[in-house]
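User: Can you predict the 3D structure for this chain?
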Amino acid sequence: MRIVIAGAGYVGLANAVVLAQRHEVALVDIDAVKVEMINSGISPIADPDIPRLLQSCAGRLEAVVDHSAVYQGADFVIIATPTNYDETRGSFDTSSVEAVIWQVLAANPGVTIVIKSTVPVGFTEQQQEKVTGQGFGAHVLFSPEFLREGHAADGTIHPSRIIVGFPQGSQVGKARAEGFAQLMRDVASDGNVPIQVVAATEAEAVKLFSNTYLAMRVAFFNEMDSYAITKGLSSENIICGVCLDPRIGDGYNNPSFGYGGYCLPKDTKQLLANYQDVPSNMIAAVVEANRTRKDFISEQIIALRPGTVGIYRLTMKEGSDNYRSSSVQGIMKRIKAKGIEVIVYEPTMREEEFYHSRVVGDLAEFKRLSDLIVANRYSPDLDDVKAKVYSRDLYHRD
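Assistant: Here is the predicted structure, written as structure tokens:
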């Protein structure tokens, strides 16, 4: 098949290199530098599997900036462009997704379009209505991704489930959804990975509720940690005892400064916005709990009266180069507001400043200048200054 993917971020690139093991794939992105790197076999994101997969799909994957002809003749077009949460509108900014849909229709009016960008519940149905209303024969589907930052390719090869949503009442849409689900199963390592073909609104809800549940677990164990700190108890002993219950398990139980990254902050806010006419308490509490945790951690740091605080890494997870909406940024802002000097060590960053804080590129110099080192996730790089480190990372993992 010929597949075109719009957006070369974590989701788009991971899907591209995996699908290109068997199919012809074109990857469209507005970033010319990123496009050149991909065509040169260099991964623009931190992921241990993508460099190898880029080499093995040479000749079947091409990255382009100019989309004018690339959508013609495609069997599927996957949209994986960013949809950041717009605080002023109280919803995702879906403008990039909508722009791609109309670019695709101009070149290929009957194609199957699969949205993998996270969108509000009801968005796919709305787009299908617009597409049909303009006389196009294209079908718009939604297929959520459940990838881990830093391991996106592995998550595409070993998915926990494949979910595809189609506009309700469309038998052709359902058939195309089943076809796309089988396409993704065929490139997965497990030929029996569960497939769920449902209404598009239900698939959109699955994505938001899945990530909000994970955010809730993060918030729950962080509040357990806050309790232990306040009462002088061992967080590790309490968490271990709780998680030995097999109904609870030990996933997402490592205390942190709060949830962050690409998905959890924006998805929890979008789900909360979708609850405007539904009685609820828990979703709002998850969002508020994350703010409270950052306040609590900041107060703990401020109470230590450090002269200069060093922020060790802005990234959310080990092996990732993403620091968008990372929880430690909230800590930075709070302690800087108290007049405490903050410096940053982030090896993926080339800038000399981050939010008016000096970026120190040399780790030894960073350690020397810091009275207190704040690390959302601990690293062996800090072993020699362990006495200076403030972290709530109990298990040294994500």
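The mean pLDDT is 94. The first strand starts at residue 2 and ends at 6.
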